[in-house]
Amino acid sequence: LQGCPMSLQVLAYNRRTYSTVSQRLVITVIPAPGGEPPYQGEFLVGNRNVEELLPEAAREMFLQGSAGVWERRDLQVINVTSALDRGGRVPLPIEGRKEGVYVKVGSHSPFSPCLESAVSPQSRFRCSLGQQPLASCYDTFAPHFSIRWCNLTLMQVWPSSMTPGLIWGSGVLEEDGDFQPPTEVPPQDLLLGFLVTLLVPLVVAALLCLLLGHLMCCRREGV
């Protein structure tokens, strides 16, 4: 689909008035100049909604905070997803609570020791106890973004080998090309199952008819 324009219809609604508006966008997918970043980290921002991180200025500010803990400058935002799409709960309409946003950032440079220590087994154990994970660097996201460090995910994505496309044939079966089933099914005797399926309902229906006839004919008043 790279290089092909796609038409996408976006439907949005107002949180307060519930009014809706739709817009059709034409998107052309263009591969990144340097390819997909092999080192990717996903951060959970607890004090933001997804629409607050879509503007370019907000994403640039987030990249500045990411550069401080990643210790790299070649960072780019790959994906922005609402926490509600990951099983999160709708926040209560009090105290200005937010839905939460997952922001995936990629780089061509390895992870910093700070990020690796935040996802270490020791840090995961501290998170299971309700404590903050180990981090050897200063949180450069504060005070604009509140990062849930226990939900940090680091991954390495390497380019996969290109698989050849589908090769379409002529549509005509070649000579001596009869279909051969992978396995042979042994013959089965289905007579017993057929008789049980047919006779049992007939016997039950006959008994019900006899019972109903006895009640209606032999249990009448005066008989």
UniProtKB/TrEMBL annotation:
Segments forming a coiled coil: none
Transmembrane segments: 190-212
GO CC list: sarcoglycan complex
Domain Sarcoglycan alpha/epsilon second: 38-155
A Pfam family of this chain: Sarcoglycan_2_C
Keywords: Membrane, Transmembrane, Transmembrane helix
UniProt keyword annotation of ATP-binding present: no
Protein name as it appears in the record: SGCA protein
